[in-house]
Amino acid sequence: MFEMIQAGGWLMIPIILSSVIALAIVGERFWSLQRERIIPKNLVAQIWQWYKTDKLDTQHIQALRASSPLGRVLAAGLMNRFHPREIMKESIEETGRQVVLELERYLNMLGTIASITPLLGLLGTVIGMIKVFAAITTQGVGNPSVLAGGISEALITTAAGLVVAIPSLMFYRFFRRRVDELVLKMEEEALKIVDVMHGDREQEGRAGAAA
Fold it and tell me: pTM higher than 0.85 for the full model?
């Protein structure tokens, strides 16, 4: 393995570093984007129980904000639950944009690695072929070992770049899709809270008017 890396030339260094960074990002995103960590089950039902039992105070909201990304979004809306529906939705949307940026953390870097590693491999190919033609110019075609060095450098860097780029691109698209699904689900849960709070309040208002 070391001999192959050495034969690939100095361009193998950034390709290997890119592979290490990509692997670290993939592991971190798999851990961070677990559905249970982002959208805990029965969170809206728990909030509804707090609300019905008059336990929805600042302490509970602060604990909710620290519990998960969804909890952070819902807490922003609950802090404005006594304001009109539009203000409550605006606070949820503003916090939601910040949460989305956190969910997309490192994905641009992963996409960049998927884009540049084939180019690094192509650059290695060009450099290797330049060495081949330089060897032909100076020594002719009578020394196969000299030609083989440039050709092997060209092929190894190309292969290494593709080996890093292909899985990086696959995981980049996979995580982008997961983020989109999580964001959509968080929007649904946030709208439930808005409807619960203001729907319940409107019903109370209508009951009071009828009385």
Answer: no
